[in-house]
């Protein structure tokens, strides 16, 4: 098992992205795939029940809720947060294009360029 094999039908003629074979649901979604985490056949490491990192191979998690079972775009909490809108207060005499500037960036000193000396 390795590269160059279709994890769905076991063919070496094509990859899984081009596979049109139908698989028995009892065998799982990828019957010819070998998990890198537990070493068993039938699933990929991203869906392994023994994988503590879940979908995040390099560590981390969903940026909204911290779960390793879904990406941020699929987070159930994002559906609620999309509807929330932050509205500022309107003060008397304030113009319509008023923007509050909280922190002004400090001016940076220009870097002095040191000439490079090459000795032969």
Write a brief structural summary.
Helices cover 5% and strands 0% of the residues. It has one helix spanning 76-81.
For the biggest sheet, the summary is: none
Number of strands: 0
- Shape descriptor: flat
- SSE pattern, N- to C-terminal: H
Distance between the first and last residues' Cα: 56 Å
Please tally the helical runs, counting DSSP H or I stretches of 4 or more residues: 1
Q: Which residues form runs of ≥5 with pLDDT under 50? A: none
Helix content: under 10%
Computed Rg? 27 Å
Kindly report the average pLDDT value: 75
Task: Kindly name the structural category.
Answer: little secondary structure
Task: Map the helices and strands.
Blueprint: H1 76-81
Protein name: Zinc finger CCHC domain-containing protein 9
GO molecular function, one term: nucleic acid binding
Domain CCHC-type: 34-50
Description of the structure:
This protein is low in regular secondary structure and 120 residues long. The mean pLDDT is 75. The protein has one helix spanning 76-81. It contains one helix and no strands. It is flat and about 70 Å long. The N and C termini lie far apart (56 Å). The longest helix has 6 residues, at 76-81.
What descriptive keywords fit this protein?
single chain; flat; little secondary structure; 120 residues; 0% strand
């Amino acid at each position: 098992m390795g590269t160059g094999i279709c994890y769905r039908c076991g063919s070496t003629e094509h990859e899984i992205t081009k596979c049109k074979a139908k698989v028995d649901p009892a065998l799982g979604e990828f019957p010819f795939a070998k998990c890198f985490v537990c070493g068993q056949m039938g699933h990929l490491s991203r869906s392994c029940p023994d994988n503590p990192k879940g979908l995040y191979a390099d560590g981390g998690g969903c940026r909204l809720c911290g779960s390793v079972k879904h990406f941020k775009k699929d987070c159930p909490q994002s559906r609620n947060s999309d509807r929330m809108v932050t509205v500022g207060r309107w003060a008397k005499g304030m113009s319509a294009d008023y923007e509050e500037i909280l922190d002004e960036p400090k001016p940076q000193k220009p870097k002095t360029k040191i000439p490079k000396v090459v000795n032969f």
